[in-house]
Amino acid sequence: MIDQKSTVDAMQFRMAMRLPATAVTVIATGTDDDRNGLTASAVCSLSDSPPMILACVNLKNSALSTIRARKAFSANFLTAQQASVAELFAGRTRIYGAMRFSEGAWTTLFTGVPVLSNALAAFDCVLECEYESPTHAMLVGRVMSVLQNSDSPELVYRRGEFCRSVPLPMPTEQGSSSQAAG
Ligand SMILES: Cc1cc2nc3c(=O)[nH]c(=O)nc-3n(C[C@H](O)[C@H](O)[C@H](O)COP(=O)(O)O)c2cc1C
User: Fold this and answer.
1) pLDDT tens digit sequence for 105-156
2) Residue 131, ligand 1, Cβ within 6 A
3) Is the dihedral of CA 104, 95, 162, 16 positive or negative?
4) What's the pTM value of the predicted model, to 2 decimals?
5) For ligand 1, is residue 21 a contact (CB within 6 Å)?
């Protein structure tokens, strides 16, 4: 390992990381009054056999202790219509804990933790294992149930803003042949 201090400061890192678009999820956990959740972009597929999700949660996050106690969480990928849910679970409206579930169509599947029924895709997971960095818990979730609403456009976060992604126009055959002809 290279034993040198990084010359990249936090601001430089943040400015570069905010350029690529990321999917936006709400990680949810708990039942009844101990429900809690957070908006998270550090969520991805880990494997399909068995189906596993990786989610990175700050050690200071208020939902982490409930995820650990319940040994379950859901990862709900949001649609472009759910930007207000993302704001709510990011703590931007100063609403905390179970009160955050007042918005959104929440249901339960296999594990009993909240799952957003009209999410783009939602993964109901048991906590298989976790790894801890000095700042974040890297949670590995074994996916027990899935739901999807594939017709909805996805919510993305880029350059500090919630956006909807739009497909690139594909060149028509006529357009591409005239381009090739110069
Ligand atoms: C777009 C976006 C992505 C975020 N991604 C993560 C993430 O991957 N992991 C994380 O721990 N916090 C992430 N956060 C921050 C949490 O949403 C925020 O700290 C949390 O909701 C605060 O909840 P608490 O006050 O209950 O602790 C993200 C915030 C935003 C706006």
Assistant:
1) 999 999 999 999 999 999 999 999 999 999 999 999 999 999 999 998 999 9
2) no
3) negative
4) 0.92
5) no
